[in-house]
Design brief:
Blueprint: H1 6-11, H2 19-28, H3 32-38, E1 71-73, H4 84-100, E2 103-107, H5 113-127, H6 131-134, E3 146-149, E4 164-171, H7 185-209, H8 216-219, E5 225-233, E6 243-248, E7 254-259, E8 265-269, E9 272-275, E10 283-287, H9 289-294, E11 304-307, E12 314-322, E13 330-331, E14 349-350, H10 351-361
Helix pairs in contact: 4-7, 5-7
Length: about 375
Amino acid sequence: MVNPNIHRVLDEIPSHYDRRQEVEAFDSTKAGVRGLVEDGVTKVPRMFFSPPDWNSEKIASKDSDHFRIPVIDLGGTNLESVDAVGHKEIVSQVRRAAETWGFFQIVDHGIPVEILDEMLQGVRKFHELPKEERSKYYTRNASKGIVYNSNFDLYTAPAANWRDTIACFVTPVSPNPDDLPREIRDTLKEYSKQIMKLGVALFELLSEALGLNPSHLNDMGCSEGLVFAGHYYPKCPEPELTMGTSKHSDNDFLTVLLQDQLGGLQVHFQDEWIDVTPMHGGLVVNVGDLLQLISNDKFKSAEHRVLSNHAGPRMSASFFSTTTLPSTRTFGPIKELLSQENPPLYREIMIPEYVKVSNEKGLDGTSPLSQFKL
């Protein structure tokens, strides 16, 4: 049952400030940040306050032509139908984007815009269910299969983010459809199929961009696991005090993000924060830590963040490509990329080891990659 006295509980926190007490009081509501907004909160609780340096970095001009996220036209539903010259140009664009930005947007990717819109609508419908309905899914136990909560790292990160999430594995083991909220059930099933197909094609392009056989990354298992996360960023009364998502890099091989038109996503590039301007029908693709590791730093896992906003809510649907968990398979820099001039920069690791380190430290503004360097 949702605690109706959450604000009274928070107001009674002693002056010396016990963050753990505030976090536990918030978490016990099972209503997330959305619950605070529903209750009419006008001040951001202290547990959400970002460290001052997180918000002090320079933000580039939205109108800067030099600092604009690459946009790549994939040429339709079937990449094999693109002629040799066009295919070579797509691979070249993917290579440049992955090496320099670690981020790019794709258009003409083959997924109907209607499915994209329905996915975002489904995310919104779930997060805007009455508290009593959505709280049934609230848990911090990943073994439940369907996980709805606010901040996976709520108890470990330096500051909580102004964001709620529903997440699940979609492959290789799909959730029981009856366990999924009906608001996202059918759309998630269809959208996941489309994303899996697109993911295979993207890893083929990335393999070629590394000078490898097109099937190399898929054969390694980079696309065999897929995790869905539907994020909901409510309007924030004091956005200058907190982040929608703190600075971080993704602990996967590749992320495909569908964002709505509100904006707020930024990527760190040449010591500046650059807006990733929403494109209706477009998808954002970014390199993850694991792809940077196996490419031996050839590809860049860029830090990114999401700003909180007076406006809202903002919705997004992310798909994270990883391997089957748990797995005893080891990953290190791809041997075909190594030479005397290009020795391995990282030791071999198992994916659960990397994910454990990443999850335990939470979104603290630093990358786990340095812990695995030789």
